[in-house]
Amino acid sequence: MRALLPWAIPALALALVPLLIQSPYALHIFILLFIAVALGESWNVLGGFAGQYSVGHAAWYGLGAYGAFILLQRKGIPPWFGVWAAVAIAVIIALAVGWITFRLRGPYFVLASIAVAEIIRLAALNWKILTNGAEGILGSDLPPLQIAGTVITDWNSKMPYYYLGLMMAVFCVAVNFAVKRSKLGYYLQAIREDQDAAHSLGIALTFYKNTALGISAACTALTGGFAAFYVGFIEPQGVFGIDVSIQMVLTCIIGGIGTVTGPLLGAVVLVLLSEWLRASLAQAHLLVYGVLVIVVILAMPDGFVGFVAHRLRRKAAVK
Amino acid sequence: MKPLLEVRNVSRYFGGVKANQDVSFSVEPGIVLGLIGPNGAGKTTLFNCITGFYPPSRGEIIFDGQRINGYPPDKVCKLGMARTWQKVRPLAKLTVLENAVVGALCRTASVAEAKGIALEQLRMVGLERRVDVLAGGLPIGERKKLELARVLATKPRMILLDEVMGGLNARESEEIIQLILDVRKRGLTQVVIEHDMKAIVRTSDRIVVLNSGEKLAEGTPQQVVNDPRVLAAYLGDSGVGKA
């Protein structure tokens, strides 16, 4: 429990932010940050701990987004119920995919993960009756959230999204914590370091990889559902596109793969950097963004966390 | 005594290459069986067949009365047979303690309990002061000991050691020999692949000699070192010359 204390303080501080800052733009940045943190931490369970570099996580993100959207649009089911159905669908599909693709190793697994996301994107593009194809779906107004007859929010400001996003980010960080300290976490890291050694020590490789994928896909789909309602519009390229997947991977690479703090730091850097560049450079921002990302990766191949940990270890060694 | 492991007429082919050909032997509980042979004799392939990494092309592996051909390695480990690797495989970015914990988790779901088991084994191999070091940073001698601690942490009934002394200096080899003898005292059955003849003679109760994938001889250490066929295999055309 003591290890959680340093996390509780900033989380509480963040809970107070909307009381002090009313600027919608500032709150918007925070919400983007929470989404990026949640996505980075989600990817980290599979990519970071188990070392299975999926570049197809947009599949689970998009399934969460489309699932929750379609259930509201067609069936009138509010997303706070509907998203769980979407999460379940994403997990079922993820496990079926994992069962097939986890026999592949290294770059072959990466390619397979990209292919799966592309297949699902193309399905969303062409299954027009269900998804409305390339035109996408514009979110209808959310019904007010009521608990025991009292209206909690009518979704007309950034405030409810802020708190929901914060909860989502905290949840995903907590999941990483729980995984890292459990038997599952040890086993996933063993698989990452050396699959054959792990296998010989009694670790059923496919079972544990699938467990990691299930958790990772569930968190990703949940965040996808939330992000979709925040943006209010979805279309296949926007939620199933490879840039969504790459963004998740990048968040972890920049921050430090396989650590709990890494994706958090990575998200802060990437969101602030991209917003700042967008505001100051207009069209050229993606170019500069790309170059900066490459520079950071070259300078700190183990991410921020790895860089700092290495420095600390050297300092300790000198003493 | 009823053998713990029986290898019955095991053959393993890779395309046209016969890595193992009709090999049979059995291992009684509590003994140390030495497995020797010149380079390329098929020792490691045999280990891979026994522990489930390659299913045998022919023949049977019986562990504790159960036929285990085709069982995946994790299941073999759960049944109580664990192996080390000739080329050590530390989980490089995990600490020494975490490496041993991964082994110990084979028998428990509790990380706290696994840490207890892991520390016990690390103490036994003499790595208790290195628990917080990253395994990737260990020198070769300590890596070999970590391999041993890690398999012992899985609480096996039998361990297969693939050249645990390979690449070690005389003092380090001596430590490993003592460890093998200590483990033997605890009643754990061992199959040991080793190149160093002196070490194998000191540790083994019985020795099986492989040559070109086939069993060449089997007997007590004295019988084997005096067997002219064994000497020929080692000193003859293969030219390893360690006998």
Explain how this protein is built:
The complex is a heterodimer of chains A (319) and B (243). Chain A has one domain. Helix content of chain A is 77%, strand content 3%. Chain A has 15 helices and 4 strands. In chain A, the strands form 2 sheets. Chain A has a two-stranded antiparallel ribbon. Chain A has a two-stranded antiparallel sheet with strand order 2-3. In chain A, strand 2 and strand 3 form a beta hairpin. In chain A, helix 2 packs antiparallel against helix 10 and helix 3 packs across helix 10. Chain A is globular, with a radius of gyration of 20 Å. In chain B, helix 3 crosses helix 4 and helix 3 runs parallel beside helix 5. In chain B, the strands form 2 sheets. A 6-stranded mixed β-sheet of chain B has the order 6-7-8-3-9-10, sandwiched between helices. A 4-stranded antiparallel β-sheet of chain B has the order 2-1-4-5, with helices on one face. Chain B contains 9 helices and 10 strands. Chain B is globular, with a radius of gyration of 18 Å. Helices cover 37% and strands 24% of the residues of chain B. At the A-B interface, helix 8 and helix 9 of A face helix 2 and helix 3 of B.
